[in-house]
Amino acid sequence: MQHIIDRVANIKSKLEPYGATLVAVSKFRSLPEIQALVTAGQQDLGENRVQEMAEKQEHFAQYPLRWHQIGTLQRNKVKYIAPFVHLVQAVDNWELLAELQKQAAKHNRIIPFLFQLHIAKEETKFGFAFNELLPLLSSQGLAAYPHLELKGLMGMATNTADAVVVRKEFAGLKKHYDELASAGMPMQILSMGMSQDWQLALEEGSTMVRIGSALFLE
Ligand SMILES: *Cc1c(COP(=O)(O)O)cnc(C)c1O
Questions:
Q1: What integer pLDDT is reported at residue 137 of this predicted model?
Q2: Which end of the chain is less packed: N or C, by CB atoms within 10 Å?
Q3: Is the dihedral of CA 106, 110, 111, 113 positive or negative?
Q4: What's the CATH code, domain 2-216?
Q5: Residue 195 in contact with ligand 1 by CB distance below 6 A
């Protein structure tokens, strides 16, 4: 497991000049692998399956870990993570937002979240189109969601080796992030970049990268 500890340190040192945060994507990873992350001092962990996150959270409950929901979240599963989730990164529809509000209220919490924007060419990737978020800029804004706190945006670039395409998609997401910020929306986190493209993402303004395989694969 030493390679995991070394990679966390290595990637963190490269994020430092950008002031960016590492979310270690621990989905599908075993408990010993996650223990290696914990040993490396890694506190932000990303999962895309609710049940897996809830089990791991319980197992590592004695550590001060921050669990990020990074994948598609089904409305009927929100209740399982509402008590502890640190950041819901992939809000891609209004019904989900309404359910998050309901469950956050029930647990007397404010749950931070990101809107996921669709920036890739692939239809299989989820997220809002930027125009769908524009009604938020009206006077009502997020007033209907007092138990939620918008922190920023998340996006996934097309899975391609063509750096020009990927860079352009990240730059587009950053532009929308800046547009929302100048319209007065609270933009603090721009979550973009995975194992294949995190360096490009940093150059295009990412403040948070979500890295899985590059930490674990031998
Ligand atoms: C799996 C996943 C990641 C991490 O992917 P790697 O290529 O393993 O780094 C990042 N973000 C999301 C939304 C994911 O589902």
A1: 84
A2: C
A3: positive
A4: 3.20.20.10
A5: yes
